[in-house]
Design goal:
Distance between the termini of chain A: 33 Å
Strand order of the largest sheet of chain A: 7-6-5-8-9
Largest sheet of chain A: 5 strands, parallel
Structural class of chain A: alpha/beta
Helix content of chain B: 25-40%
Number of helices of chain B: 13
Radius of gyration of chain A: 20 Å
Strand content of chain A: 5-15%
Largest sheet of chain B: 8 strands, mixed
Distance between the termini of chain B: 24 Å
Shape of chain A: globular
Strand content of chain B: 15-25%
Oligomer: heterodimer
Number of helices of chain A: 11
Radius of gyration of chain B: 21 Å
Chain lengths: 321, 438
């Protein structure tokens, strides 16, 4: 990782979603992440690329997994990482999002990682803040680093995106993971199938260029990749799905349904899993087919790549505003 | 009753099969509980090699009736009706399949309870029982039931029975979820707020009687609302019973738009109007209430023209404790399994509809909607049959009904045509010639 004058990868100073990215930008990030997978497996995992830079994790919604992944990525690149616990902050005391932005500006961070429960909140913040912003998941909108780490996992398993058939199963309607993956996989030339009961399919789902299936057995036939989504607890109790046992019967991935996919098909899940709801432990724990642990490992690498790519656009001189 | 593996030959019958439009003299052969052969030339002469021959003497031999709306009291109110007593009434009425409503105690809203109904029916009932399951838990209109698992358990449709789901968002989601499985939703069209406390159709007669009443609008609002939700969700939807012209017109228009909707009407609403409530006859307090003569005539026209798909008995047994009360305090409902065929034939005898079209609404069409094998005179179909003389005159005597409850709305009514013999899976489950004389 010699960095005399590394070529820019991203055209923008923020990573707010996959939708705006080109195939070249995605490929650039994946290529860069390959190097970081190697670094992360070395004894000395530390780089000094971001030395002196400040990275703030601002999570309005709890996510231990994603937050630790970003924290680790920042630290391994040598940045100072601050986790702002929103629960105890002034936000919880009624401060508006834009007041928070002003406060953060005054702290002069270089990169801000934001997770927010409302779609569009991260973009709103990015317009009011003077540093790079990475969307770590906003509402039901996008979760770009998840889609990138999924893509990295698929690619590292030797699969080519062109002509690949990927089934995304579960709560498509409320899933930012699904939206980001649909954008990324379609952009890279894969065919995407969406599998869900009608109550969990978003309106006009067919307008995204995906094939829609309400029968999971039909939808899984011949697919290369099965991506399961987490079913949020509050959706399982009769509002959109009658019960977890019914959901598991018709939309839970078990060995029998998986047999319909192409031999050697990979099973993915963004975590955390609801065992016995959307996935059977028998499948989730089978390392022959399940790449769920690899997704976690690749998550750190892809986030390092994103931080690296964004840092290339950061001003080298200090600001005097 | 143990003859299911034997051959039974029907000869000299007027075969009417609404599924194919067949109406001809001919014969029918039953073997192992199924129809082995049927046709105009079959058994024109008696063959001594056939062990059992039934000479139909020119009477109608048609598929056994399928009644899509039957309330029983089992489980929970067995003093009103059990599956066994309802099946006695059904057999006597030429009904070979009863579709039971989930409005029992407990409510049929779990797969294990659908299984219970099926087992009890197999053990105690003379006719086939096809259970409908609740659309929402405990019929509360709040949470959808496990539609997929209930279908696997054998539920033929989903309904909250005598009430509609008032929360539009809950209904939208239930319809949308049901569409996933192509499940049949059966709705009761009555706005519970608008009809709250009402016992009759709103109009001059209710005003004279001083009975709280609800307008037909209470029905049509729900019909129009649910049609919009069908358009949104693509669910397969059947209005259990409609009772007025405005509802019929809305459904005709929806069908013309290609929506997957159908509708039914009860025998009561084809044969009676609000004036039949007379001097507070609680046995004629039904839900929806008997309507104006113009609305009744519209229902007859709807059947004759094929816009109304199904005729039901809306069989609802009530005991003295719920019916021998002042009109407003009395329960809704009347028994009807034994009068479904005679009441439906009324509109044939009046010259308003053809017999084959009327029979279609109680055989082929319900079978198709519910995905049942019966309802037709076809080779390989179950030998569920009714033999009747459509012209046989009789006066309805409530004391001779087979139902445990006797709350008929037709006491003393003159009819023409009733079941002589009824067969389920080739077995004779009713033979009027062997009935005890009262």
């Amino acid at each position: 990782m010699t960095s005399a004058a590394p070529a820019p990868i991203l055209q923008t100073s923020h990573l707010l979603g996959i939708e705006g990215l080109s195939a070249a930008e995605i490929t650039g990030l994946l290529d860069l992440a390959e190097d970081y997978v190697k670094l992360n497996r070395a004894a000395d995992k530390k780089s000094s690329l971001l030395r002196g830079r400040t990275l703030i994790n601002l999570f309005f919604e709890n996510s231990t997994r994603t937050q630790s992944s970003f924290e680790l990525a920042g630290k391994r690149l040598g940045a100072d990482v601050l986790n702002m616990a929103v629960k105890n902050s002034s936000v919880a005391k009624g401060e508006t999002l834009l007041d928070t932005a002003a406060t953060l500006n005054a702290m002069r961070p270089d990169i801000l990682i934001v997770r927010h429960q409302d779609s569009g909140a991260v973009e709103l913040l990015s317009r009011k803040i003077d540093c790079c912003v990475v969307n770590a998941g906003d509402g039901s909108h996008e979760h770009p680093t998840q889609a990138l780490l999924d893509a990295l996992t698929i690619r590292r398993r030797g699969r080519k995106f062109e002509g690949l058939t990927v089934a995304i199963c579960g709560d498509i309607a409320h899933s930012r993971v699904a939206r980001s993956n649909i954008h990324l996989l379609s952009r890279m030339g894969a065919r995407v199938r969406l599998i869900a009961p009608r109550t969990l399919l978003p309106a006009d789902a067919d307008r995204f260029g995906c094939e829609i299936f309400t029968d999971m057995r039909e939808g899984l036939k011949g697919v290369d990749i099965v991506m399961m989504l987490r079913l949020q607890l509050e959706r399982m109790t009769g509002a959109l799905v009658p019960s977890t046992r019914e959901y598991f019967r018709f939309y839970g991935l078990d060995r029998e349904k998986l047999k319909l996919a192409k031999p050697g098909a990979l099973v993915m899940h963004p975590g955390p899993m609801n065992r016995g709801v959307e996935i059977d432990s028998d499948v989730a724990d089978d390392l022959e087919v399940s790449v769920i642990q690899e997704q976690v490992e690749n998550g750190v690498a892809i986030r390092m790549a994103v931080l690296d790519a964004l840092a290339r656009g950061l001003p080298k001189e200090g600001r005097n505003i | 009753m143990s003859a299911s593996n034997q051959r039974v030959a029907f000869r000299n019958a007027r075969l009417i099969d609404p599924a194919t439009g067949l109406d001809t003299r001919g014969g029918l052969l039953v073997e192992n509980g199924k129809i082995a052969d049927v046709g105009a030339k079959l058994f024109n002469t008696a063959d001594p090699h056939d062990p059992e021959v039934i000479d139909c003497k020119g009477m109608v031999l048609a598929p056994g009736l399928i009644d899509m709306r039957v309330f029983t009291g089992e489980p929970g109110s067995e003093h009103r009706e059990t599956l066994a007593s309802a099946s006695e009434a059904a057999a006597a009425g030429g009904v070979t399949t009863i579709v039971t409503m989930p409005n029992t105690d407990p409510v049929i809203d779990e797969a294990a309870l659908v299984d219970f109904i099926k087992r009890r029916a197999a053990a105690t009932a003379k006719v086939r029982v096809a259970p409908m399951a609740a659309l929402t838990h405990a019929l509360k209109g709040e949470r959808m039931t496990e539609i997929g698992l209930l279908l696997e358990a054998g539920a033929v449709g989903f309904t909250d029975g005598d009430r509609s789901v008032s929360n539009t968002r809950v209904l939208r989601r239930a319809l949308s979820y049901a569409a996933t499985f192509d499940a049949l939703i059966v709705g009761h069209a009555e706005d519970s707020d608008l009809s709250s406390g009402a016992s009759m159709n709103e109009g001059e007669f209710a005003t004279r009687l001083g009975i709280p009443a609800a307008p037909t609008t209470a029905e049509t609002i729900i019909v129009e609302r649910d049609l919009r939700l069908v358009e949104l969700t693509g669910a397969r939807y059947h209005f259990s019973q409609i009772s007025c012209r405005a509802s019929l017109e809305a459904i005709i228009a929806a069908k013309a738009r290609g929506l997957p909707v159908t509708c039914g009407v009860s025998a009561h609403h084809l044969t009676m109007n609000e004036l039949d409530v007379g001097s507070y006859l609680t046995f004629r307090k039904v839900s929806p209430p008997l309507r104006s003569e113009a609305d009744r005539a519209a229902m007859v026209e709807g059947v004759a023209e094929g816009h109304i798909d199904v005729i039901v008995s809306s069989h609802d047994p009530q005991a003295a404790d719920t019916k021998r009360l002042p009109f407003a305090a009395a329960a809704f409902g009347a028994v009807g399994l034994e009068t479904l065929l005679p009441a439906a034939l009324t509109i044939v005898h009046n010259g308003h509809a053809q017999i084959i079209d009327v029979l279609k609404t109680v055989t082929a069409t319900p079978a198709k909607l519910l995905g049942l094998e019966g309802g037709k005179l076809a080779k390989g179909a179950p030998a569920d049959l009714v033999l009747f003389d459509p012209d046989e005159p009789f006066v309805l005597d409530a004391d001779k009904l087979h139902s445990r409850a006797r709350n008929t709305a037709f006491e003393g009514r003159k009819f023409q045509g009733r079941a002589r013999m009824t067969f389920v899976g080739g077995e004779c489950v009713f033979d009027r010639a062997k009935e005890k004389k009262h």
